[in-house]
Amino acid sequence: MITAHITGIGFVLPLCCGMGRDFSQTAPQISDAQSENIPDKRGLPKLSPTETLGKPHTRFGRMDDFSRVSLSAVAFAIRDAGLETREERLGAGIFAASYYGCLQTDADYTLTMADSPSPGLFAYTLPNTFIGEASIIFNLTGPGIAIQDENPFSSIALKTALAHMHVSGDQAVIAGASDIIPDGLESNRARTINGGLYFTLEKNRAKDRSYGKIEYDGKGLRFNNSKTDNLSSIKESCIKTLEAKQK
Fold first, then answer.
1. What is the torsional sign of CA 210, 48, 145, 147?
2. Do residues 24 and 30 touch, judged by C-beta distance below 8 A?
3. How confident is residue 186, by pLDDT bands cut at 50, 70 and 90?
4. 3-state DSSP call for residue 247?
5. Contact status, residue 142 vs residue 93, Cβ threshold 8 Å
6. What is the Cα 115 distance to its own chain's centre?
7. Model confidence pLDDT, tens digit, residues 63-114
8. Could you report how far apart the first and last alpha carbons of the chain are, in Å?
């Protein structure tokens, strides 16, 4: 049995964004600090690098939607775990599942090729570009893995990340899913949504930083001794566990 603790949650979802420890189930909406940021056409909040990364970042505004949403959710997960303030390198990788990935950006870039190809768009025509950005910003030295799956918000990324931790001996990983459904395409074939949801997993961490224990037996996942196979349900269970501790 492969085990780890979930110590951080980060999400950028329609009308809902932030870190696990700042999230209220009774008010799943943009916080007061973000209320002036009108959601984009997909219902996702428009965030600044200071809000998401905790500091300015010159390339943040030039990113495509997929990279910006993914990086923000990963950053929230890292910050929620309290790992953003350390100075030393962290041997943690990022495991990111998606179905469409940066397909919208690929299409946008293709439209520029006949006249003047856009280098700004070209930089984000790979679904793992944001992983490199996050690794640089947060000084991560682990592997960056982009996973293509028809059901990215299932547990595919968590299972892959836990298997990696078992084989490599790495003490921490960030794993989850993000997607941007391209204009004109329906999501009925792929069970996916616009947005991103990521978790920080650590093998050893003080109990006060843990939302609970996640276990993988090579087939299925259990979180706090309950079977699960969905990122959203894991997030909800984490929040309930946190609220119970705070009472």
1. positive
2. no
3. low
4. coil
5. yes
6. 35
7. 899 999 999 999 999 999 999 877 788 889 999 999 999 988 888 888 888 8
8. 32
Tell me yes or no: is domain 2-246 CATH 3.40.47.10: yes
Beta carbons within 8 Å of 45's beta carbon, 6+ residues apart: 12, 15, 16, 17, 30, 34, 37, 39
Sequence-ordered list of residues with C-beta below 8 angstroms from that of 148, at least 6 positions apart, any chain: 97, 98, 99, 101, 127
Closest CA to 2 of 222, 191, 208: 222
Residue closest to 203 by CA, chosen among 171, 176, 233: 171
> Taking Cα atoms as reference points, which of 152, 20, 12, 8 lies closest to residue 92?
8
Q: Are 229 and 220 in contact (CB under 8 A)?
A: yes
* Count of Cβ atoms closer than 10 Å to residue 185 Cβ: 13
Helices (H) and strands (E) in the chain, counts: 7, 9
CA separation for the pair 33, 149 (Å, rounded): 34
Number of neighbours of residue 201 by Cβ within 10 angstroms: 27
Beta bridge partners of 145: 95
**Tokens representing 187?**
């999501």
